[in-house]
């Protein structure tokens, strides 16, 4: 919740006013609740566990994905048919809805993968990322990328847009602004995106695989299936796209195309939107980069008139995890210097409790903090300082906010377990198991649409949905 304030202020300051009185679009939703984010075996969660909770309706263990808590991290032998969970994508497809996933992360990353994958380790995104012991113990086990292309519900997604090309192709190259991604190691000589094309040809459906914004703009709105992978790993930040003149779409551009394609169905649709890696940039952690992405996310939420009918749909904004941590002063540049500390050195308004921003210098034999300047902290690549050294900052374990509007928005009204979110969304959209209320004409929605938009608010990740 505090990070919402920081983003709101930054957004307002970009509009040349103080910022404290500004609003993010979803902050005006009339219904508000809280969600508890812990994993079954961790007080402070990771995104695989939280993604499984809010998309599958079951809390699970730290770093496992799309499976219940009987599965042990890094042990494929604990996975079996009964431990695999269905997601809200399964429920939507069972009701004939069109479905899609749009993300700025790798499409195989934790949150998007929670819609379709089942794995004992979220890092098993491609075959080369699976250790030798698990490969030997479970020779038929599929990595996350293969599950997307080969198995339901992934292979039935109508729209797939994001990064992670390297997870789907064993023969990739790197270019300026799009380096190799160590988290994707396709070593089996498979070219999975070609397998996807072959599959769609055999099904006799209109389809398109794309790599660039130019190709995205040429896709017909009558296309049944669209698969776009715009970078080897996570998609570049907007600043990098501009300085490197990269032909890569923004979140609103991907969102607009996804909505057009999904809207062609007559039974509503499900869409997950996640600019997720903006909330946890690899290194350095640069808040300029994250916050600039947030404004795209806020623009995507403002696109909701394209999605919401006047009475059939519900909008939901929520966070899945919080992160660590900042201090804020009124009437100051939220990304600038705040004041002087007891060591007579300046500190910034925003700081992390941990992460790669831990640093120091030695002056005359004395270890001290860096003497920051306004020019230093305004640089796009500046890493905010952290109190504890880690290669990446961690999530927080605190409760996160839920904002809701529209029919059934009152279901989000107090402190909820995070897995409650999936069941409440399904109830509102008349999908899943609990359908008794949908048999009444007074309560049944004609074509309820489900859209979840994950919004990284500088340090947080926020999720918006229209049901």
Describe this structure in words.
The chain is α/β, with parallel strands linked by helices and 467 residues long. It has two domains: 2-324 and 394-438 and 447-466, Alkaline Phosphatase, subunit A, CATH 3.40.720; 337-389, no CATH class. The chain is built from 13 helices and 18 strands. It has helices at residues 2-14, 47-56, 88-94, 110-113, 132-137, 144-150, 192-203, 213-217, 238-243, 251-262, 287-302, 374-378, 420-429, and strands at 31-36, 98-106, 159-163, 207-210, 225-229, 269-274, 315-323, 337-340, 346-348, 352-355, 361-363, 366-368, 386-389, 395-396, 400-405, 415-417, 450-457, 460-466. Strands 1, 2, 3, 4, 5, 6, 7, 14, 15, 16, 17 and 18 form a twelve-stranded mixed beta sheet that branches. Strands 8-9 form a two-stranded antiparallel ribbon. Strand 4, helix 8 (213-217) and strand 5 (225-229) form a beta-alpha-beta unit. The chain is globular and about 70 Å long. The two termini are 23 Å apart. Residues 278-286, 288-297, 300-311, 324-328 and 455-467 have low confidence and may be disordered.
């Amino acid at each position: 919740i505090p990070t919402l304030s920081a983003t709101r202020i930054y957004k307002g300051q970009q509009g040349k006013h103080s910022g404290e009185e500004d609003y993010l679009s979803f902050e005006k939703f009339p219904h508000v609740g809280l969600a508890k984010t812990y994993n079954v075996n961790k007080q402070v969660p990771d995104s695989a566990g939280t993604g499984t909770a809010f998309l599958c309706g079951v809390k699970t263990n730290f770093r496992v994905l799309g499976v219940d808590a009987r599965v042990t991290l890094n042990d494929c032998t604990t996975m079996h048919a009964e431990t695999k969970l269905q997601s809200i994508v399964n429920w939507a497809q069972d009701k004939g809805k069109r479905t899609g996933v749009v993300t700025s992360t790798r499409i195989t990353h934790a949150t998007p993968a929670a819609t379709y994958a089942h794995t004992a380790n979220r890092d098993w995104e491609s075959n080369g990322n699976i250790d030798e012991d698990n490969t030997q113990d479970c020779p038929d086990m599929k990595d996350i990328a293969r599950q997307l292309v080969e198995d339901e519900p992934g292979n039935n997604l109508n729209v797939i847009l994001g990064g992670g090309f390297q997870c789907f192709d064993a023969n990739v190259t790197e270019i300026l602004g799009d380096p190799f991604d160590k988290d994707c190691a396709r070593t089996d000589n498979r070219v999975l995106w070609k397998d996807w094309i072959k599959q769609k040809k055999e099904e006799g459906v209109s389809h398109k695989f794309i790599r660039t914004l130019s190709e995205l703009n040429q896709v017909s709105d009558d296309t049944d299936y669209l698969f776009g992978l715009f970078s080897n790993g996570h998609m570049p930040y907007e600043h990098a796209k501009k300085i490197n003149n990269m032909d890569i779409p923004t979140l609103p551009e991907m969102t607009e195309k996804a909505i057009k394609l999904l809207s062609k169905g007559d039974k509503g649709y499900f869409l997950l939107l996640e600019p997720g890696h903006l909330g946890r940039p690899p290194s350095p952690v640069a808040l300029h980069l994250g916050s600039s992405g947030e404004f795209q996310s806020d623009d995507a939420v403002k696109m909701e008139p394209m999605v919401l009918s006047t009475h059939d749909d519900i909008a939901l904004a929520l966070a899945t995890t919080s992160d660590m941590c900042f201090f804020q002063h009124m009437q100051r540049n939220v990304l600038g210097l705040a004041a002087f500390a007891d060591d007579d050195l300046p500190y910034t308004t925003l700081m992390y409790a941990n992460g790669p921003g831990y640093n120091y210098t030695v002056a005359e034999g004395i270890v001290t903090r860096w003497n920051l300047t306004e020019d230093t902290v305004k640089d796009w690549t500046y890493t905010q300082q952290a109190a504890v050294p880690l290669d990446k900052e961690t999530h927080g374990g605190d409760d996160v906010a839920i904002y809701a509007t529209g029919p059934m928005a009152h279901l989000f009204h107090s402190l909820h377990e995070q897995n409650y979110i999936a069941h409440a969304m399904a109830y509102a959209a008349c999908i899943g198991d609990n359908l008794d209320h949908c048999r009444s004409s007074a309560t049944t929605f004609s074509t309820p649409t489900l859209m979840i938009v994950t919004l990284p608010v500088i340090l947080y990740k926020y999720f918006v949905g229209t049901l």
